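Example 9 (inverse folding). The structure is encoded as follows.
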């Protein structure tokens, strides 16, 4: 287990303490001073067992702890798991509202359900910061104290496509195994209805064909962002004589599903892997790049997003200017850029 993964696990364990102990994040004597201002931040995520989301929430807790120590304030962070159920998540938001939290951060189970959450938050005059799952624009326009932090999905698809097209142009024999001049591929997609899944799927392939490379889709299916589901689906394809032996590239909408594809190859006893690409640059994915099983991924900046979410939440809680706190803020949106991660730069980009 690498250093970042250990730190993230420890921070997520600490979240339980933060939900039960309102004294905040700091271990210093200053945090026990009753005269200090206490800031209460509620966070609800669609699934805590999602690797990217757990990494992001770990960074959020780390940032809150550092700011508490620096500014000598109490910051109580309550992270709750929506467990993939919008009803459960709505109840969690209601709890934060009834208990008078200063700000609520929401990674929606269902991005189309934002209007209900925004209207409730507006009635209570408690600002809300959505992240990772973008509400539809019409819902965001319902209130000017609703914000969104994320990354542009099309950019991640483009960069994923470039990993494959660049490799094809530089070393065609590594990609085009049968030498027919085109790429036979399968696509592992995120959950239906999620904007990132549809956009990443579209733009990854569009980028490859835009580079003048012919493609042939052998199969595609949803695996709901989950490693186990992707492994099961990939295992079925590998058993299909019309699909398995012909796969040259596995496109995956996120890293967990890409790792699931690798798991399926290992379970099938196949050591000679095709090109496999993911998105997110999670710690396990970076390890897979180093060991040579994952060809590449696209950094969906969990640390940068966590810091932006916190800075927005902190500014909103303390009455500070949000634009000054988060210079990237454009109206109600904060967009973080993506970066390509391959064996050529993974060591330089991360000190895992």
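The amino acid assigned to each position is listed next.
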């Amino acid at each position: 287990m690498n250093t970042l993964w250990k730190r993230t696990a420890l921070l997520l364990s600490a979240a339980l303490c933060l939900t039960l102990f309102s004294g905040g994040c700091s271990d210093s004597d200053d945090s026990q001073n009753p005269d200090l201002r206490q800031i209460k931040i509620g966070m609800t995520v669609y699934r805590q067992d999602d690797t990217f989301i757990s990494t992001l929430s770990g960074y959020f807790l780390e940032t809150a702890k550092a700011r508490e120590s620096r500014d000598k304030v109490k910051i109580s962070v309550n992270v709750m798991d929506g467990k993939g159920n919008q009803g459960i998540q709505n109840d969690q938001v209601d709890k934060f509202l009834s208990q008078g939290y200063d700000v609520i951060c929401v990674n929606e189970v269902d991005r189309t359900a934002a209007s209900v959450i925004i209207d409730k938050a507006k009635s209570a005059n408690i600002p809300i910061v959505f992240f990772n799952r973008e509400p539809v624009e019409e819902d965001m326009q319902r209130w000017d104290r609703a914000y969104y932090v994320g990354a542009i999905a099309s950019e991640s698809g483009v960069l994923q496509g470039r990993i494959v097209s660049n490799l094809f142009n530089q070393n065609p024999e590594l990609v085009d195994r049968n030498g027919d001049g085109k790429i036979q591929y399968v696509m592992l997609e995120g959950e239906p209805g999620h904007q990132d899944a549809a956009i990443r799927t579209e733009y990854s392939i569009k980028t490859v064909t835009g580079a003048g490379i012919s493609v042939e889709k052998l199969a595609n299916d949803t695996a709901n962002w989950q490693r186990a589901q992707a492994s099961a689906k990939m295992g079925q394809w590998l058993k299909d004589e019309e699909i398995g032996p012909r796969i040259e590239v596995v496109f995956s909408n996120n890293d967990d599903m890409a790792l699931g594809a690798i798991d399926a190859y290992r379970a099938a006893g196949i050591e000679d892997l095709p090109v496999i690409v993911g998105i997110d640059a999670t710690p396990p994915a970076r390890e897979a790049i180093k060991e040579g099983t994952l060809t590449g991924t696209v950094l969906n900046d969990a640390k940068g997003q966590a810091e932006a979410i916190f800075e927005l939440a902190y500014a909103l809680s303390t009455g500070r200017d949000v634009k000054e706190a988060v210079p990237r803020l454009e109206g109600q949106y904060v967009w973080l850029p993506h970066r390509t991660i391959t064996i050529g730069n993974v060591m330089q980009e991360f000190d895992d």
